Amino acid sequence: MENEDLKELIGLLKDTDITEIQLEKEGVKIKIKREKYFGHHDMPQQVMVERKAAREEPQGVQAPAVPDKKLFTVPSPIVGTFYRSPSPEAQPFVDIGTRVRKGQVLCILEAMKLMNEIESDVDGVVARILVENAHPVEYGEPLFLIDTEA
Amino acid sequence: MPKTIINPEDITNLLKADGGYLSGENIASTIGVSRAAVWKAIGQLRKTGYAIESSQSRGYKLLSSPDLCMPDLRAALSESSKKREHELFYFETASSTNVIAMDMAANGCAEGAIVITDTQTAGKGRLGRTWLSPAGRNLYMSMVVRPDIPPRDATALTLLSAVACALAITGHCGVPVSIKWPNDLIAGSRKIGGILTEIRADIDRIYHAVVGIGINVNLSSEELPTGIRQIATSVLIESNRSFNRTALAAEIIMEFDKWYGLLVIHGKKLIMEKWIELSATIGKQVRVAVGDLIYEGTAEGIDDEGLLIVKLADGGSRKFSAGDVTIGGARQ
After folding, report:
1. pTM for the full predicted model
2. What are the start-end ranges of the E strands in chain A?
3. Which of A48, B4, B287, B327 has a Cα-to-Cα distance from B57 of 20 to 30 A?
4. Is the pLDDT of residue A55 over 50?
5. Is this complex's ipTM strictly greater than 0.90?
């Protein structure tokens, strides 16, 4: 695998929740591990490429720890149901590309008629919305990625 | 120089304590204000529902207090054995007690603060629905709490407020009230009250929560819009009696305080047991609507977080964190 390929692969994985990849070149063995990540800041995805059958040096290559763009993850504080708008008829609080300010409401989570308006902790632009409207979410599940450098 | 600012409650307290006539001069000197200020305050009190008789020779006499009376509520709460501090904020008209209370909470008001109103112009239900809030009939109040529990346990607040309201209405008014998951208050098979809890939390902690309670108290059948007569009821409709809203509010708040104390000290186990005991949902055929999706099956129970467990017709089971539950087919 060339360095350029590796860079491209890292780029592709940047916004996913894939935490581990194993490749085996000739025997075509690929192992991908996805993990829900927790915490506020976008976790660096560690991309491990093992090159057992490779011609070059056999040790693993550690991907750069810091993604080139800083994406802030908004996790769910509760087990609940995700709503993108205050009522079914209303416009969504935010869309992809919406510029948000710290404290702006992003969505509502409902758990047993306990309504939790989730606010942005940062200024930025909504880069990804990771859950569909009216779908259940787990504790700690990422809801939004916010690009704080856009 | 006598004060001109006057707390009308000082006057009602004096009149209540005396029980008979007190002259304007007597009142004025006792609380250290001018007679003109007393006269003005009496006018305000009358506007808020106090019946105060005045006689030129004998002075003022309190005949009756309004049905929703903050001094009476304060007095009732101060006699409670479970003393939690409650600052009361009364509004004759409010947009929504939850909106006001959330705003106050965000601005750092004290734990236990209660917003109470006679009528709401924008009473809130779930997901933008409205809560019917005519004046002079019902109870609309919201309490600010800052429980020191993990956010994932916050759903216990929903269960406990339902338990507290059901027990208070049943005990005080003699109308048996059960709970439809998660916290609708049901009498017969119709809704007598609802609770909407809103919280501000991040993954680590709850900043504040507001428990909004709406109870249909003295609403007559004719006053209910025809569209909801099949699904809504009131204490009056169920018992043929009207009740003093202040006394019922006090019962609900005291019951809430009791269970809230249990939650903070012992966790949610006792609350969940009581909820199950009062539940109108468990063991029943239910239909759950979540967004556009509808599920049917048997309500088997609730899990540790209060989520409803339904055994579906196809044999599988599913947990619900939100949804409109209908018991036995007919929409409740």
Report:
1. 0.77
2. 18-24, 29-34, 48-49, 61-62, 71-75, 80-83, 99-100, 105-111, 114-119, 124-129, 135-137, 142-147
3. B4
4. no
5. no
